[in-house]
Amino acid sequence: MNQAKALTLSSRQLITVLYYALPLVFLALALYFIPVLYHLVLMFLFSYLISHLFVPPINFLVCQNFSRNSATLTVFLFILLIATALVWAYAPATWNQVVELQEQLADGDLMELSRNYAARTENLIPFLPQGSLTARIDELYSWLFGQMTGMLANVYIVIQYLIIVPFIAFFLVRDRERLRRSAVQKIPNAFFEMFFNIYYKIDQQVGEYMRGLIIEALIVAVLSIIGLVALGVPYAIVIGLFAGLANIVPYFGPIAGAIPAVAIKFLETGEIYPTALVALVFLIIQVLDNLWLKPFVFSRGMKMHPLLVFLVVVGGGQLAGIPGMILGIPLAASFLVIFREFYWGVRNYSFVETLH
Amino acid sequence: MDLKKIGKELFSGPDSESEKQLEVLKNCPLFEGLPGKELKNLQELLHERNFDHDEIIVNQGEPASAMFLIESGEVLIYKPQPDGEPREITRLKAGDFFGELAICEEHRRSASSVALIPTKVLVLFRQEFLSYARQNKEAGFTILVNLAAMVGTRLKNINDRFFELIEENKKLRNQLEKNEE
To answer: Chain A closest CA to B154's CA: distance in Å?
Structure first.
């Protein structure tokens, strides 16, 4: 009788150990395979970030008597419809601009012009070794050309992301409440209130950050396009969209966003004044962004020190390139929430009394 | 390949509705006057927790972020005393609820609670409730009016009891003065 009881107890213990150990084993395996499954992990993280953009319209539809499933489906179909219409209307023009820009870079006219300028500058500044600037220009062009060719070659990967990311995001949005509930359910009674607070705060912060970021990118893109069209800069749509997208990456993004427009204007006109005007437009957009848009995006979202944001962006860039720069901030902010809430919880909840 | 089944899984998801949970919500005075659809929406926010016999549910003084509805079992609400023996406040059964003030304000638990027998509770977190109430203004208004009415009744009872105690105190004092004379 006693033996049977002992056996039952040990099997229960085994199950308890497995219950907590299995997720850790899976986590260890996942971490081990991250380098192999790099794109899958990135796709999942992007899906998680993007899924937050769909929450407000879906919640709105749920309030209008839609079921969560039909609301999710409606919002996704609506966005798919709009995206298809936009691609139908603008993709050929945008693609032509990219190809034209690439051809022009390869053409040599622009290269010749910038070489002339480099040679003239070398003559003006006596201590510059002859040929040093022109060599630099050659390097820059071969790099730019490589980047453009690489970008065209990457279209396949981009299309993969464009299909898979919304697919994962659909399920993350549709099962949002259920996922949250099942995550909280796995936590022992003593910790579940604290765990819920951590989960909810991360979700809120990431959601607010993402929604703010997309609004910011859209406004920067629209302002850039308007400014570039007004100044007669060629490829205004591509450069404007790129500036909006680049703006998502803090600190480095705005500079990277302005470089193509300034370079193209300079190479096109060969004069300082119109080039400076283009730079001024980007400067004004950045001032507006930093004074008006950024506080709106960051005030309610991530509570991170600017220096920490900077370090995270640099670190993220070193670890995983541009995706690392974009994902770094929400990930770092999530870790901060975990630390803050955990230590606050340890001070405020009396776990020991409730533990058995 | 069962397309119907795949379609159901893709677009409707597994059925998570529990009639029992809905019944608890329906019978809870806090949610009185809510239409069935709203009760189902609210049900989506509930977290089910199981507590063993003698397991503490909340501790006095801890941050309160959720209210608890008892689906089954029995819960003792008590005040821990510094000198030892805790003072019992009340015993709650299936269908009762506690910690309801947590759904509208951040405060610390004013009492502790423990499961007297194996107990299943449904937990409603403040953040989730407030975000629900912001989106479903009418339902949120109904729940908060119910809560206000409940708190009002409780306050009135406490007032009545307070004046009763003052009267008793007066009588005892008069009696004491008479005895002294």
So the answer is: 27
Contact (CB, 8 A) for B128 and B15: no
Contact flag A200-B127 (C-beta cutoff 8 Å)? yes
Q: Taking an 8 Å Cβ-Cβ cutoff, which residues of chain A contact chain B?
A: 59-60, 62-63, 65, 68-69, 73, 174-175, 177-178, 181, 184-185, 189, 192-193, 196-197, 200, 204, 348-350, 353-354, 356
Give the start-to-end residue ranges of the domains of chain A.
1-32, 40-186, 189-356
> Cα–Cα distances in Å, from A46 out to A40, A135, B85?
10, 40, 55
Burial class from Cβ neighbours inside 10 Å (0-12, 13-18, 19+) for residue A231 reads: middle
Residue-by-residue DSSP string for A244-276:
HHHTTSTTHHHHHHHHHHHHHHHHHH--HHHHH
**Could you report the per-residue pLDDT of A224-281, keeping only the tens digit for each?**
999 999 988 887 888 888 889 888 887 778 888 888 888 888 877 777 888 888 899 9
**Global ipTM:** 0.76
B64 burial via Cβ count (<10 Å: 0-12, 13-18, 19+): buried
Q: Report residue B4's pLDDT band, with 50, 70 and 90 as the boundaries.
A: low
Contacts of A68 in chain B (CB under 8 A): 44
* CA atoms of A143 and A297, how far apart (whole Å): 34
Q: 3-class SS at B74?
A: strand
Residues 6+ apart with CB under 8 A from A75: A54, A57, A58, A61
Q: Which residue is it, tokens 């100044």?
A: A231
Contact B121, B93 (CB under 8 A): no
Query: How far is the alpha carbon of B61 from chain A, nearest alpha carbon, in Å?
Result: 8
Cα–Cα dist A16/A310, whole Å:
43
pTM over 0.90: no
A350–B52: do the CB atoms touch at under 8 Å? Answer: no
CB pairs under 8 A between A and B: 59
Q: Radius of gyration over alpha carbons of chain B, in Å? A: 22
Domains and CATH numbers, chain B: 16-180 (2.60.120.10)
